[in-house]
């Protein structure tokens, strides 16, 4: 069968997989709550300020949160269809990541203007929208800024809603050029590059708000009642990805070591490099790895933790695999062991999201990966006040700084060693 035909067939199968996922999530939501309760919960989700950490399971209820996830996914699938795009690794990563963040920060209200803004940029710049899906979907990281402007600064609704929408359109228009520029800052070693971009935008926005005495502070609204339900849901999602990948790959994982040998540095699209089947299998493996890690630590499973697991699984299509993620997780765990309670969201979430620096381990080895994970924990809590929690991808913001410091130092050290070895006198072998 021609390769182009295989790609089209796999795309259709992946689209159907996600459409079925939307329908299943909707059905579960309808099973857990009445339509009236779901509507009321969805209104609360879309009318909240959404900044870190706003667990939608606590804000709107378990059923309404699942419905929010389904609606975000459906919206993005429609955009993919209209853009005539193929679901490669970038789209897979964006779909699962934004679905994960629909548990604690992303909703239709704060996503729509950003995605539309990227579409406007695409039209003005005459750039195919199918090449900007990652920026459009992941750009919703700054969605809480839209919600905060609409509901959190005391404006009348008739003023706050259009102002927030217009600013969302503007942000969507500037995300593509900014993200391309900031990629050079960390040289592709921070997988959540859009998170770093959103962090800079959030920093500037919060600075302006504070000029007008509007102080934005992170919040902590965390659900504690639906651990079992979320575990079962996540287990089903990750097993489905793994099995779907095995089906597409006809049960073979012989080429998996080749995927594991990849450094993961941006832009490592595993679908393009290794095929859809092996990529989906890796996504399932990464999801199960994170779920097993949390269960072993007896950590909480709530909206933010679920979102972190979904993100790691999503980036199993765009750079992450067990070989380059485990060292980061170990380094972050060591840092948290001495300074935080490992059985809290405050430890679990940054440990999982710290795998944004997976290419560091993939390129420079496990010890460097552990060091990067350790430093990430040290940095991540200190950058949160800069954007007040309005950037959902706070770990991507932190990861950009860690990579920007470590990579030049490592490269300088390697270059110095190479120059020293080049100047060393040749060794003379033979009998003395």
Features:
2 domains; mainly alpha; 20 helices; 432 residues
Shape: globular
Helix content: over 70%
The largest pleated sheet is described as:
none
- Tally of helical runs: 20
Low-confidence stretches: none
Overall structural domain count: 2
Report mean pLDDT, rounded to a whole number: 93
Order of helices and strands: HHHHHHHHHHHHHHHHHHHH
Quaternary structure annotation: single chain
According to DSSP, the number of beta strands is 0
Describe the overall structure:
- There is one protein chain.
- The chain is an all-alpha fold and 432 residues long.
- The protein has two domains: 3-211, no CATH class; 227-412, no CATH class.
- 72% of the residues lie in helices and 0% in strands.
- The protein has 20 helices and no strands.
- The protein has helices at 3-32, 35-46, 56-59, 62-82, 89-101, 108-125, 133-138, 143-151, 157-186, 193-211, 227-248, 256-260, 270-274, 276-296, 303-314, 322-339, 345-353, 358-364, 366-387, 394-423.
- α8 (143-151) runs antiparallel to α9 (157-186).
- The chain starts with a helix and ends in a 9-residue tail after the last helix.
- The mean pLDDT is 93.
């Amino acid at each position: 069968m021609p390769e182009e035909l295989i790609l089209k067939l796999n795309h259709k199968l992946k689209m159907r997989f996600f459409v079925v996922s939307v329908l299943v999530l909707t059905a579960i939501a309808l099973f857990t709550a009445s339509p009236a309760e779901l509507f009321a919960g969805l209104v609360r989700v879309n009318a909240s300020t959404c900044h870190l950490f706003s667990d939608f399971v606590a804000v709107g209820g378990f059923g309404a949160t699942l419905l929010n996830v389904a609606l975000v996914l459906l919206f993005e699938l429609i955009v993919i269809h209209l853009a005539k795009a193929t679901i490669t690794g970038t789209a897979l990563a964006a779909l699962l990541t934004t679905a994960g963040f629909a548990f604690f920060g992303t909703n239709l209200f704060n996503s729509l203007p950003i995605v539309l803004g990227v579409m406007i940029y695409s039209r003005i710049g005459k750039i195919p929208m199918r090449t900007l899906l990652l920026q459009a979907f992941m750009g919703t990281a700054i969605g809480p800024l839209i919600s905060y402007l609409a509901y959190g600064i005391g404006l009348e609704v008739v003023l706050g809603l259009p102002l927030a929408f217009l600013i969302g359109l503007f942000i969507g228009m500037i995300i593509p050029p900014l993200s391309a520029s900031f990629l050079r800052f960390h040289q592709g070693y921070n997988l959540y590059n859009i998170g770093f971009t959103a962090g800079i935008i959030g920093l500037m926005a919060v600075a302006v708000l504070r000029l007008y005495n509007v102080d934005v502070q992170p919040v902590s609204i965390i659900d504690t009642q639906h651990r079992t339900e979320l575990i079962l849901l996540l287990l089903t999602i990750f097993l489905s990805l793994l099995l779907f990948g095995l089906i597409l790959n006809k049960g073979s994982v012989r080429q998996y070591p080749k995927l594991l040998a990849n450094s993961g540095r941006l832009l490592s699209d595993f679908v393009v490099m290794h095929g859809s089947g092996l990529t989906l299998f890796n996504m399932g493996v990464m999801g199960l790895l994170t779920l097993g890690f949390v269960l072993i630590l007896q950590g909480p499973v709530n909206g933010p933790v679920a979102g972190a697991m979904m993100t790691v699984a999503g980036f199993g299509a765009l750079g992450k695999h067990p070989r380059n993620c485990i060292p980061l997780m170990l380094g972050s765990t060591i840092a948290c062991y001495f300074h935080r309670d490992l059985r809290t969201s405050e430890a679990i979430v940054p440990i999982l999201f710290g795998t944004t620096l997976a290419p560091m381990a993939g390129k420079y080895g496990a010890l460097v990966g552990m060091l990067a994970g350790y430093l990430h924990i040290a940095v991540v809590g200190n950058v949160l006040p800069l954007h007040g929690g309005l950037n959902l991808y706070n770990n991507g913001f932190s990861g950009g700084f860690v990579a920007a410091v470590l990579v030049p130092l490592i490269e300088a050290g390697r270059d110095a060693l190479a120059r020293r070895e080049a100047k060393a006198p040749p060794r003379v072998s033979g009998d003395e």
